[in-house]
Design a protein that fits this description.
By secondary structure, the protein is α/β, with parallel strands linked by helices. Helices cover 30% and strands 16% of the residues. The protein has helices at residues 38-58, 72-82, 113-117, 126-129, 149-157, 205-216, 236-249, and strands at residues 3-6, 8-9, 12-13, 26-28, 64-67, 88-92, 139-142, 161-163, 178-183, 221-227. Strand 9 (178-183), helix 6 (205-216) and strand 10 (221-227) form a beta-alpha-beta unit. The longest helix is centred in the first third of the chain and has 21 residues, at 38-58.
């Protein structure tokens, strides 16, 4: 698999050691971000990411995109679409990521990521990227357990499928090609240290890896998107845990 490293948390350039990926075939995407709004800056960065994803997809590769937050998934989806695929999404996350600008209570932009991929506020990123919104019935939200009231209300009336990690099987996956998104905070916070938004009561690392491999076993994954919203590592233990997780996630067939 080809790994595309995007060393940013939204429009903030991260330290070089923030995303410990050591795959042999790794390309780093950077961009000269313009002055302007965060959305204008992200559109420039994500256009470069989408171009890299499209190039590798056209060559028959299954690219893995590793970044510091969930919004990059829009670039991954757009890149796959540029290569001619029409993917559904399987979204592993401890959070719903289905806020809008109007419902968000924290203002954290990553909390809008899945909703943006499904067409909300299309002028912000979808239109600049040429992203065709994923329909709700082709989105599966996996192990989201920290939901705000507005997210609960939206999901209750939407066609988004919700499942726990252990419930994920072929019967609930969207038809056709799949972009698989894994926010590492889906793992129980007790196992993964120093996350930006830790959530307890979640699945083990092993359970998440088994579920990821089940999705890959379908042969329909066209891109893997991994978000790592964590604070800088505090010590060698943090670094070792993160390296082991990313190594396992970027080698899902092993």
């Amino acid at each position: 698999m080809t790994t595309i490293l995007v060393p940013y948390h939204q429009d903030e350039r991260l330290a070089d050691d923030s995303l410990p990926v050591f795959a042999a075939d790794t390309a780093t995407v950077e961009a000269a971000l313009p002055d302007g709004t965060v959305w204008q800056r992200l559109a420039v960065l994500y256009d470069a990411v989408a171009a890299a994803v499209a190039e590798h997809t056209r060559e028959g590769a299954v690219p893995t995109v590793v970044s510091g937050d969930c919004l990059v998934a829009l670039a991954t989806i757009a890149g796959v679409q540029r290569a001619g695929a029409d993917p559904g999404v399987v979204w592993f996350d401890a959070h719903g990521d289905v806020h809008t600008l109007e419902t968000s209570t924290s203002g954290y932009l990553g909390g809008l990521a899945l909703r943006l991929a499904m067409g909300a506020h299309d002028e912000l990123l979808a239109e600049p990227l040429g992203l065709r919104p994923v329909t709700e019935d082709r989105a599966v939200l996996v192990d989201a357990r920290d939901l705000d009231p507005a997210e609960v209300a939206y999901l209750a009336q939407s066609r988004v499928v919700r499942r726990a990690v252990d419930e994920l099987d072929d019967m609930v996956l969207p038809e056709g090609p799949i972009v698989l998104h894994v926010d590492v905070d889906v793992v129980d916070a007790g196992e993964l240290p120093n996350l930006r938004f830790p959530v307890s009561g979640g699945p083990s690392t092993d359970a998440v890896l088994r579920a990821v491999r089940r999705v890959f076993a379908t042969g329909r994954v066209v891109a893997l998107d991994i978000a790592c919203p964590w604070h800088p590592a505090r010590d060698d233990r943090d670094r070792a845990v993160r390296t082991a997780l990313l190594t396992a996630l970027t080698e899902p067939g092993s």
